[in-house]
Amino acid sequence: MPRLLLLNKPYGVTSQFSGNPREATLAPLINQKDFYAAGRLDKNSEGLLLLTDDGKLQNRIANPDFKLGKTYLVQLEGLIDTRTLKQFSEGILLKDGLTKPADAIQISTPNDLWERSPPIRFRKNIPTSWIRLKIYEGKNRQIRRMTAALGFPTLRLIRISVGEWELGKLRPGQHKQISI
What we know:
Blueprint: E1 3-9, E2 36-37, E3 46-52, H1 55-62, E4 70-77, H2 82-90, E5 93-94, E6 97-98, E7 103-107, E8 128-135, H3 142-149, E9 154-162, E10 165-166, E11 175-179
Parallel strand pairs: 3-9
Antiparallel strand pairs: 1-3, 1-11, 2-3, 4-8, 4-9, 5-6, 7-8, 9-10
């Protein structure tokens, strides 16, 4: 029976168990053996990372051919407008091609988020806005590149779901195991 771990990956942690000795890894967070990350979440992003002990499940989660939507809360520098939000649904041209259409809506500042360590940069004269963004592919640093291409740099990026699996109430560094 395949097992799946849902982990709230903290900011600054790489999505692997070993690597550069000066970088934080998953090793101190996960004490079960034979689990591997299904997909990736870059070091500067937070939130849901799925880990499994089953190769077929790992492929189903990570392979873009299966089109599992991934949903993020994104804090942007600047005040986003409706016209810019619409551009996500049309695809955004990046250096490596046009992104697939994404779903983006503006949201209020989430009130149940944990503090990030270190905190995001704060500029007194530059407002920020939040969006909920769902993508159906996973190009390298895609969301950061998409928002930058539209003139709204990403300040904070938190994945809250992958397919049917949700972060829920897990706090940074916490995980829970579910059977599939």
